[in-house]
Amino acid sequence: MSRRDGVLLALLLLFLAAVTAAWVMLDRRPPEWDHANHLERAVACHRILAEPGRDRAGEIIAMSSFYPPVVACAAGLLYFLFAIVPLTAQAVIWGFLAVGTLAVYGIGRRLLDAEAGLVAAFLLGMAPFVVFSLTNFQLDLPLAAMVAVTLYALVRAEGFSRLGWSVLTGVALGLGMLTKPPFAAYVLPPLAWCAWGAFRAPDRGPRLRRLLLALGIGLVIALPWYGPRLVGLPMQILNRSFKQAAESGHAPALTTGSLLYYPRVFQPQFGLLAAPLAACGLWALRRMPRARGLLWSAMLPLVVFLLIQNKNLRYTLPLLPAAALAAAAGLQRLAPAWRRGLTWSCLLLGVVQVSSAAFALPPPPAVPPLLGAVVFSRAPDRGDWRQREALEAILRAAGGRPARVAVVPNDNYFSLSNFRYAAVRERLPLTLTRAWDGSPLGVQFVILKTGDQGPDFASEKPDRIMAAFGGGDPWLAAAFPVITEFPLPDGSRGMVRMRRLLPVAGLRAEEVARRLHQSAAGFLGDHAREVLGLTVSLEYRPEALLRGEVDRLVIEADSALVGEFARNRPALRLRNIRLSLAGLLFHPQRLVDTGRIEMLDLEGLSAERLTVTESDLLHFLRAQKRFNRVDLRLGDGSADVRLGWAGPTLSARVRLSPGLDGSPFGLRAEALRVAGMGVPGPLVGWVMRHLDPAPRLRRLPVKVLLAPVSILPGRIEVGSSEGPAGSPPQERRG
Fold first, then answer.
1. Could you give the dihedral angle defined by the CA atoms of residues 657, 662, 663 and 666, in that order, rounded to the nearest 10 degrees?
2. Is the pLDDT assigned to residue 83 strictly greater than 60?
3. Can you say whether residue 502 is alpha, beta or left, with left for phi > 0 and alpha for psi between -120 and 50 degrees?
4. Residue 640: exposed, middle, or buried by beta-carbon count in 10 A (0-12, 13-18, 19+)?
5. Which of 21, 307, 539, 635 is in the most buried spot, having the most CB atoms within 10 Å?
6. What is the pLDDT, as a whole number, of residue 733?
7. Euclidean distance between CA atoms 669 and 655, whole angstroms
8. Do residues 512 and 553 lie in contact, with contact meaning Cβ atoms separated by under 8 Å?
9. Could you tell me if 20 and 27 are in contact, meaning their C-beta atoms sit under 8 angstroms apart?
10. pLDDT confidence of 727, banded at 50, 70, 90?
11. Where are the alpha helices (DSSP H) in 158-229?
């Protein structure tokens, strides 16, 4: 790199750093959805690394089921030097852009010339969507940077003829996969192109060995994170590509609207002149044999993103390094006078684009047939969404004690994601959850807003709950009075409600207990049907019962069909049932007025006795949507299971093991086979983690305890099948 090029690249990166810093200091909006989730993981990684006694590697690997840890932990490391504030996090994103920009320059200098490399670097850095991405803590700009770094390493490896750069290619592959899973889609075509060149070379033997070395290094780096997710991750990617896209209202795949989405947003995403230059450059590359194979193959993943239903500008951001190089190639084919004129035009217009993208100065106009404005833009906003005020009101009302808070809206600036990030960042003793189905079980505080509740596909529950608080359910509103209310920048009003039950008046505790008995069958209706031989007994204090408090409620039944009927989930037949509910809180006034039991809290649920037969369990498993074939045989101490799903068939002998980290039990697999091949012992846990229900029990808002569980021929038993696990509770305790 010449001194002149180094100075110009430094000026570009410093200019972008200044723009990012100014934007972050001006904007007061909370981070949106995934932005907030990634920031939360960055704080979590920082604390995992900072606090002694943590299983650092294990906890970092387990932070997210879908997003690898490299970007989050890069921010977590920077938090050791600077405060946990938005500017620190965005400095990480800027750092990735700096690396990616230098890589693009290096590719251009080697495949084209130094001037083309410099132009490509400037086109990438000044692209409107790149500027927007500098203001959000998302993984896509780091992903674009890692794609550029990998392309640079492939160029320097020269068809895997150089050992050192082949090793560095492997490192880049591994780190890229730990940036975001779609990395493989972006680098597979150029990697295949380089592998084909190595195969055709006269010394292909050594070259192919270096290729295998690079792939092995990448595998070693990425496998610790991907290994435990080999079974579940492909289905997650498929769901995000189609099912969740359909739920979000995206145009169906292969329709005109879907296929034209990216062509219609490419210019606002990449730049006014850069986009047409890139299109021309892709054609001009046909006369550049040294560059065309790599750059054409680097743009090939666009076909994949055209075909899937889920569309987002973030998904094509990692293609912009190759697009910038193609645009520089297009400029290089022009006559010198035209090349100089267009180069200066791109640079001057790029400065205007950066200002328009970051600050809407000047405001970009909308130009059909483009989707949206001619430049992708999001200016900073000084509006205060009052999240600190809401959380402080909750802390005061809770007296500093731990509390469970439901965040009902899913507005991008007023949702569970950004409230939870704020609570984690400030180490607040709050557990934040989503809007509830059915009753607000375990919820002590509710955060709400009037007006728009968020995207249509996710606003059904918030709308229903707001309607209930607005007069549709007076008992719910009475149980959760408003403790604070405040205006929000979108013209709506935010509010916090606190659970505060008043004792019923004019009734004796015995009468309330009688009504509880009468309403028990209806109370179980949301989760249990076809109940046979039901008996219910209570243990309570009279004055507490009038406030809705039951010390212990025991439910016994000969048989019941149990499941999440409200969500249309498969149900499981249980037999010989004895359940004990400790610390039950119900809405007493609703019971008196309507005869309906609404459970608001529960300290613990203990399954003291129940039986599941082999035929009932087999019917339940075959009803699960993710399995297309299930075979099961229960033996003495073990279960032989064979599962067929969208992926390979899995078979194993499963035994019960002691639970870890509060789980009531665990699953241990023997003779595990996937697609007929035996799974080595150290890898068995990677597969079983997707099938073990115990971790899901830990995440419930209620502590679940099980009596000893046994696998017996033809059945699974919890506790003893011969009688109750303890003495029946007294009807009343004074």
1. -20
2. yes
3. beta
4. middle
5. 539
6. 42
7. 6
8. no
9. no
10. very low
11. 163-177, 183-200, 204-226
Compute the average pLDDT of residues 222-248: 82
Ordered by start, the domain boundaries in the chain are 3-359, 387-498, 509-718
Beta bridge partners of 611: 575, 717
Report residue 31: phi and psi, to 5°: -65, 145
pLDDT for 445-466, tens place per residue?
A: 999 999 999 998 888 999 999 9
pLDDT of residue 647: 65
User: Considering only CA atoms, which of 123, 114, 149 is closest in space to residue 326?
Assistant: 123
Task: Report the 10 Å Cβ neighbour count for 52.
Answer: 4
pLDDT exceeds cutoff 80 at 694? no
> Residue 323: which residues within 8 A CB-CB, separation 6 or more?
270, 274, 275, 278, 299
Residues 617, 564: Cα–Cα separation, whole Å:
16
Q: Which residue has the tokens 């972006």?
A: 186
The pLDDT confidence band at residue 371, using thresholds 50, 70 and 90, is: confident
Neighbouring-strand partners of residue 33? none
Q: What residue type is assigned to position 225 of the chain? A: W
Q: Where are the beta strands (DSSP E) in 499-548?
A: 528-532, 535-539
Yes or no: say if 324 and 332 are a contact pair by the CB < 8 Å rule. no
Dihedrals phi, psi of 576, to nearest 5 degrees: 50, 60
Q: Produce one character per residue of 180-199: b if its CB has 16 or more CB atoms within 10 Å, e if not.
A: bbbbebbbebbbebbbebbe
- Peptide linkage before 481 cis (omega within 30 of 0): no
Sign of dihedral through CA atoms 42, 44, 50, 54? negative
Question: How far apart (Å, rounded) are the C-alpha atoms in residues 303 and 464?
Answer: 40
H or E element at residue 135: none
Higher pLDDT, 188 or 523: 188
